[in-house]
Structures are given as C-alpha cells and as structure tokens.
Amino acid sequence: MLKLFRSTKANKATPKAVSIIPQRMNFNFNNVPKHWYDNEPVQTHLLNALSLTFPDGERFFVDSVRAFRHVAQSKKQQKEISGFIGQEAMHSLEHDTFNKMLAMMGYQKEAEGGQALAQKFIAGGRKSLSDVEQLATTAALEHITAIMAQWLLSKHNVIDKIDPSVRQLWLWHAIEETEHKAVAFDLLDQVTDGDYLMRVKVMAPATWFLLLYTFGYTAAFLRKDGLLNQPLTLAKGVWQLAKPGGLFATVVPAWFQYFKPGFHPWDDDDSYLIEQWRALLQQPPQAPQAKAA
Which pTM value belongs to this model? Predict the structure, then answer.
C-alpha cells in the first residue's frame, strides 16, 4: 500500500524550447468597459474575482517554492525556479494595477474587500499548512491556472472576446503560466520523492476555497451592477461557462488529470501555444473603438 502512494515520480520535464523569463509589462488600463469579456457580466466578473486573488496568491506561490529551492541540484532546475519566482512576482504587480483599476471603475468596496479576504485566506494557509503542504498547494493551484491558460490560448475566439484594453494582460499571464506550469510540481516531486498522497490531498480543499471565494466575489460584482435579480442574464452567463468549449466545460475534465498516478503537467505538451501567441503579445494594443452614441 505504501508503495502505491510513492510510485509516481515524474519522468517528464519542461521542454527545452520553453524559456521561463520574467517580463515586466507596465500595463496601463484606459477606457476599460465595465463588462470587458464578451460584453458579458458573469464571465467578466468571474475573471475579475480571480484577479483579486493574484497579488497575494502569487506571493504565496513564490515563498512556497523559495523555501525548497536549495533542494534543486541542477543548474537547469535552479534557472527554472528563478524564472518562476520572477514571473510570479511580475504577475502580482500587474494584477495589483488591474485591481486598482477595478476600484476606480466603481468597484472599490468589492476590489478592496476581496483582496482583504484573499489575504486572510492565504495568511490562514501559511499558518495551518506545513512548508511541504504549502508547496503542494502551489503545485495544485498552478495546475488550475495552467489549464485555464490553455483554455484561453487554445481557442482563438476566447482571446477575441477580451476587450483590447485588457487583452494583453490576460494573454501575457496565460503564456507565462504555461511556461512555468511544471516548476512547483517538479520541485514537490523531488522534495517528497514522488509522494502521491502529498501531491493530491490538498487539491480538493484548495479548489474548494478558490471556488467559494471566486463565486462569492463574482456575486458581489454582479450585485454592484444590480444584476443578481436578473435570472435570464445570469443564466446566459452560466451557460457560456458550462457549454462545450466554455471555461468550466474545458477545465473540469483537465482538473481530474491531476489525480492520475504518474501525472506530469507536460503530459499535455501545449508549448506550441507559447510561440504562437507571443507574436501577438508584442503588438501594441488596439485602441478601443468609439461606441455609437
């Protein structure tokens, strides 16, 4: 029985063509529409709610990995860890700017309250979880961000639905989440000698807290818009998430892959998406089109 839970050491690694290089973007968000994703409030506010978790969440990821970087022996792995730390630090800064923009748009109570609650949840995790469990939580949540990034990058119509005023933020974040999707996982695999139980035991509670938080603050944003009493609007947004090709319909099956013995994030090699989208990332954002009066 013990062998069953310790026989999952991964044999794969980050593809050689993938470079994990931090990049500060210094985004400026101007003329952002209230419902910037497909002019649809439910999906927009779901992503807004996720953004509120990123500044402190990314710092949690960085600290959990940094605590064990001394275990990494190879120069390649040390370089990947440095890249991971740098990228996550930049994500924290850029989403802090995005969240401040949300506050200025009229969502100050929601943005500030949401970040305060995220800080409280994360502080509780730091206090109650061991260092190894914190690293395992990072690996689990990095799987979630990676499969969300794949949804965004693998379907061109998803990118097109994001307003140009914020498109590059989400595109850049998705590209870098793909690049470093195995860094925390590989370090955890090394630290725990492939302990399957340690890897998977935190996934369900971490997901539950993320869902509870995200749905709660999606509702808070919708309440601010006065839309919680409009069932047809809510049903339309939920259907867009749940229908084939939607975020939930795509991510849920991929979430379960994490529980497969021998799983590795690069079992699904989507590195081709990185080069495909980086060219677009380098282009200046399009100016928002003026709306008819």
Answer: 0.92
